[in-house]
């Protein structure tokens, strides 16, 4: 990933509604949400949400697919992973012990299937 793509992603996320939109879509992976539902959850007018989703889409942070009469949006988790990897690739000049707290913070906040007792 190059600097231009990283800057485009950060530019897209530097606006409050777009940042919250992306965070909502991450929570609703892998199903995604229709644009109208995202707008309702965030209390944003539909036409404004469409503009924000366009910016996120052009930055590669969301993808969309048509489902009947709705367009379903999903967070592009691969792009998010590539962006985070780009930021920490040279973490702490190779001193792993300095990066361990950061890496622990990046662990998903959801329980793993391995720890499921059922």
DSSP strand count: 3
What is the H-and-E element order?
Answer: HHEHHEEHH
Q: What is the average per-residue confidence, as pLDDT, rounded to a whole number?
A: 87
* Multimeric status of the protein: single chain
Spatial extent as radius of gyration: 16 Å
Main beta-sheet annotation: 3 strands, antiparallel
- Counted by DSSP, the helix tally is 6
Task: Find the CATH superfamily of the largest domain.
Answer: Winged helix-like DNA-binding domain superfamily/Winged helix DNA-binding domain
Helix percentage range: 55-70%
CATH class of the largest domain: Mainly Alpha
Derived structural class:
mainly alpha
CATH architecture of the largest domain: Orthogonal Bundle
Q: Beta-strand percentage?
A: 5-15%
CATH topology of the largest domain: Arc Repressor Mutant, subunit A
Which residues form runs of ≥5 with pLDDT under 50? none
Query: How many structurally independent domains?
Result: 2
**How would you describe the shape?**
elongated
Distance between the termini: 40 Å
Strand order of the largest sheet: 1-3-2
Tell me about this structure.
With 118 residues, this protein is mainly alpha-helical. The protein has 2 domains: 3-76, Orthogonal Bundle (Arc Repressor Mutant, subunit A); 79-106, no CATH class. The chain has 6 helices and 3 strands; from the N terminus they run H-H-E-H-H-E-E-H-H. The protein has helices at residues 3-13, 16-27, 35-42, 46-58, 77-88, 96-105; strands spanning 33-34, 62-67, 70-75. Helix 2 packs across helix 4 (46-58) and helix 3 crosses helix 4 (46-58). InterPro entries: ArsR-like_HTH (IPR011991), HTH_ArsR_DNA-bd_dom (IPR001845), Metal_resp_trans_reg (IPR051011), WH-like_DNA-bd_sf (IPR036388), WH_DNA-bd_sf (IPR036390). Keywords: DNA-binding, Transcription, Transcription regulation. This is HTH-type transcriptional regulator KmtR.
């Amino acid at each position: 990933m190059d600097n231009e793509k990283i800057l485009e992603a950060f530019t897209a996320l530097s606006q409050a509604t777009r940042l919250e939109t992306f965070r909502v879509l991450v929570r609703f992976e892998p199903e995604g949400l229709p644009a109208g539902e995202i707008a309702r959850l965030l209390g944003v007018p539909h036409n404004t949400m469409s503009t924000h989703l366009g910016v996120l889409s052009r930055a590669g942070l969301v993808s969309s697919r048509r489902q009947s009469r709705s367009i379903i949006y999903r967070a592009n988790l691969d792009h998010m992973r590539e962006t985070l990897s780009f930021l920490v690739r040279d973490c702490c000049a190779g001193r792993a012990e300095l990066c361990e707290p950061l890496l622990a913070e990046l662990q998903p906040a959801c329980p793993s299937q391995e720890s499921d007792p059922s």
